Amino acid sequence: MKVGILMGGISSEREVSLNSGKSMMQHINKEKYEVVPIVIDKKEDVIENVKDIDFALLALHGKFGEDGTVQAVLKTLGIPYSGCDTLSSSLCMDKDLTKTILKANNIRTARWLNVKSIEEIDYEAIEEMKYPVFIKPTNGGSSVATFKITKREDVENAVKEGLKWDNEVMIEEFVKGDEITCPVFENELFPILAIKAKTDFYDYEQKYSANGAEHFAINLEEKLYKEVKEMALNTYKALKCSVYARIDMIITEQGVPYVLEVNTLPGMTATSLFPQSAGEKGISYTNFIDMIIEYSLKNFK
């Protein structure tokens, strides 16, 4: 089977994607698959460079990669691909829609506003949520153009900056607590990892530099674990995820979990969370890639 590893892309997360792709290239079982790297530099590359592959292993992140567009192209061409389908990818990329669906399913998530212009900023609603708030592009990822805002005077500039990256910007309530990530594979919760950022929040630098945030397996007390597991699996189901997705949460000092966001193509670099969690279960990176390919082929209709 000829497997093309799609990496690069045109989003703000291109560098991370290239690292994920290189890591997958290193660890994939080359005795089992014929492997070709496919670096995407422009949108047309997806159509032109995938014609003779049997399976697309996606190492793309962000827009035109994680948002359902590439998945739609591959589906149209009849090429099976890894991970969530077009609809689920789109829903999870749009944080406003993600949170709307979570709220409709009674899954706890921080309060938020979504704006398309500075005129739409509702300062009264922000006061109600209380400062600080997080301001970020609605469809962004990897904490690009994400700001922690502590006073009213800084809101407008943060929104303007976010609108340079996206057509919509989210203003979200700040929930103080410890960040965890819940990797879900085929409706099974893999070992939960704690994320300890060395700065104020888990930003781009903390996510991807070798000496960035620490992450390690964590055992939650039984009652909390049960609630976190239920929330993670319900989130996976509500957003129609398939094969694998990573659900990020924050747990307050009072032990109350909130869902932050869902990653449908989580990072696959040497420092990434999902491969680390799989490792905690005794699954090597090479076997984990096998599992992704196997279950993605089963799910492809």
CATH architecture of the largest domain: 2-Layer Sandwich
Q: What fraction, in percent, of the residue positions are helical? A: 25-40%
- CATH fold description of the largest domain: D-amino Acid Aminotransferase, Chain A, domain 1
Structural class label? alpha+beta
Q: Mean pLDDT score, rounded?
A: 93
How large is the count of helical segments?
Answer: 11
How much strand content do the residues show? Answer: 15-25%
The helix-strand sequence is EHEHEHHHEHEEHEEEEHEHEEHH
Give the CATH level 1 class of the largest domain: Alpha Beta
CATH superfamily of the largest domain: ATP-grasp fold, B domain
Compute the CA-based radius of gyration. 19 Å
What is the count of β-strands? 13
Distance between the termini: 18 Å
Mass-distribution shape: globular
GO molecular function, one term: metal ion binding
Main location: cytoplasm
Organism: bioreactor metagenome
Subcellular location: Cytoplasm
Structure description:
It is found in: Cytoplasm. Its EC number is 6.3.2.4. Residues 99-294 form the ATP-grasp domain. InterPro entries: ATP-grasp, ATP_grasp_subdomain_1, D-Ala_lig_Van_CS, D_ala_D_ala, Dala_Dala_lig_C, Dala_Dala_lig_N, PreATP-grasp_dom_sf. 37% of the residues lie in helices and 23% in strands. The chain has helices at residues 14-27, 44-49, 69-77, 86-93, 95-104, 123-129, 155-165, 204-208, 222-238, 273-280, 285-299; strands at residues 2-8, 34-40, 55-58, 112-115, 133-137, 147-149, 169-173, 177-185, 188-189, 193-196, 214-217, 244-252, 257-263. The strands form three sheets. Strands 8, 9, 10, 11, 12 and 13 form a six-stranded antiparallel beta sheet that branches. Helix 1 (14-27) links the parallel strand 1 (2-8) and strand 2. The chain starts with a strand and ends with a helix.
